[in-house]
Amino acid sequence: MARKGRGGKRRRVCNFCVDKIDRVDYKDADRLRKYMTERGKILPRRISGNCARHQRQVTVAVKRARQVALLPYTVE
């Protein structure tokens, strides 16, 4: 158990699990932008706080949204 005030960081909860979203939609570009850096990279799971299942779905959805030109590959 972590002591108070000494580096005891809480685990982030998956926003998709909290909202009871079973499928991540690639057309929801606003939601997917939260899981990308300003340079266009996909945030890793340890930073975004997603569970493994939803992180895989986010990755596929971002790649699909880039393919259909809803999200940029990079920002110049």
TrEMBL record:
GO biological process: translation
Organism domain of life: Bacteria
Keyword line: Ribonucleoprotein, Ribosomal protein, RNA-binding, rRNA-binding
SUPFAM superfamilies: Ribosomal protein S18
Gene3D superfamilies: Ribosomal protein S18
GO cellular component terms listed in the entry, alphabetical order: cytosolic small ribosomal subunit
Signal peptide positions (record): none
GO terms, molecular function: small ribosomal subunit rRNA binding; structural constituent of ribosome
Keyword Manganese appears in the UniProt entry: no
Record-annotated membrane-spanning stretches: none
Family under the similarity heading: Belongs to the bacterial ribosomal protein bS18 family.
HAMAP family, sorted: Ribosomal_bS18
Function, in words: Binds as a heterodimer with protein bS6 to the central domain of the 16S rRNA, where it helps stabilize the platform of the 30S subunit.
Classification via NCBIfam families: S18 (TIGR00165)
Subunit structure: Part of the 30S ribosomal subunit. Forms a tight heterodimer with protein bS6.
Protein name: Small ribosomal subunit protein bS18
